[in-house]
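Would you mind giving me a polypeptide sequence along with per-residue structure tokens?
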Amino acid sequence: MSQAAAPNVAIIYYSSTGNVHALAQEVATGAEKAGAQVRVAKVAELAPEEAIAANPAWQAHVRETADVPVADPDLVTWADAIIFGSPTRFGNVASQLKQFIDTLGPLWGKGLLADKVYSGFVSTATPHGGRESTLLALYNTVHHFGGILVTPGYTAPIQYETGTPYGPSHHDAQGANPISDATRQSARYSGERVATVAARLKAGAS
């Protein structure tokens, strides 16, 4: 891929105990494999300190990711493609990520969110805890942006193994299940696919 056509890919996520953070790294690896310029950023934490302190895994994750940049609207402006990551919260996007998305109103009002590529990935505690509904809820926002939705679909063998056409997803069984190799492969594939499609669109527009 020529440097001129290399897309800028922003991976913007929220993670409390580390699963979504780990998936973000895999998505970034896939996008980089496709030649993209990748920036990974977390959104700001909104939970009170006492809630974090009451959960050792959450507290440890906050310490371990202290050096991860915090996302801001400029990152979205920079990106040709944005991949959002979130844990599920009652079948929906976590409030931390939603709050960040809600700050993008000024960019939306200027039409600066349109015609970019978007995708997503999630993690949940229970097998049917809203992984698909969370991604579908997230993608409603993409339609309002006028964005171009690029999911992994069933476009590679790994997708038939994981069965996650809407985006990579993990079920952690309240911390008992580590992220599987198949899910990690799906995350890398999704990042690669988003970057590949974004590069084609960028090259066509230049």
Observations:
- The domain at 8-205 is CATH 3.40.50.360 (Rossmann fold).
- Residues 181-205 form the longest helix (25 residues).
